[in-house]
Write a structure and sequence with these properties.
Layout: H1 7-17, H2 23-43, H3 48-65, H4 75-99, H5 104-107, H6 116-126, H7 128-134, H8 138-149, H9 154-161, H10 165-186
Length: 190
């Protein structure tokens, strides 16, 4: 049985051909795409289109930045940081568009907007806890998702979100406290 090459070996193969395409990059994509999609869906509150755009942007940025990647570090936290930064850039762009008076939701006819009952049904289907996670402020939501869904250490979480270890732990504590209050409000026992 052939053992799958380590990320560092695949990165080295990519760099040997960079900027030309490399089958090794396809392997990295296959290995890490699922984790990135999951993280991005959580960050984007399950806005599939925004998450898909951020996912594509993440891989494009990763390819371009690959020569600057420190091969002595794990690849997944590096990719997750790129994904978070791509998301932040999307949100900044959306905010700038709203300031210019481009409000896509308002531009929709009332018939094209989802009915309140449909939105509630979707939220219930996603589960009460997931809804509470999605309601967290972005900095707390990112830390929670990275730690609990991606299984990163606090040091890796801090590196991905660009904060100190202490701040990452503080944000996690705040997220857990908020989730506990939400569970209590919803009558869910922890």
């Amino acid at each position: 049985m052939t053992q799958s090459p380590a990320d560092s070996e695949l990165v080295a193969r990519c760099l040997a051909l960079h900027p030309e395409p490399s089958p090794a990059f396809d392997l990295l994509y296959q290995r890490h795409a699922g984790a990135l999609v999951s993280f991005l869906h959580g960050l984007h509150r399950h806005d599939v289109h925004a998450a898909r755009d951020a996912h594509q942007e993440t891989w494009l940025r990763a390819w371009r930045a690959l020569p600057s990647f420190d091969a002595g570090r794990p690849l997944r936290p590096w990719l997750l940081r790129i994904a978070r930064n791509a998301s932040l850039d999307q949100w900044k762009k959306a905010a700038a568009q709203q300031e210019q008076g481009v409000d896509d939701l308002a531009a929709l006819s009332p018939d094209a907007r989802p009915a309140a009952g449909e939105a509630l049904a979707l939220r219930e289907a996603a589960g009460l806890l997931r809804g509470a996670v999605l309601d967290l402020p972005e900095d707390q939501r990112a830390v929670f998702l990275l730690k609990h869904e991606q299984g990163l250490t606090y040091a890796e979480v801090a590196a991905v979100v660009g904060c100190s270890l202490r701040t990452a732990k503080y944000r996690m504590a705040a997220a857990l406290e908020a989730l506990g209050r939400a569970a209590e409000r919803l009558g869910v026992e922890a």
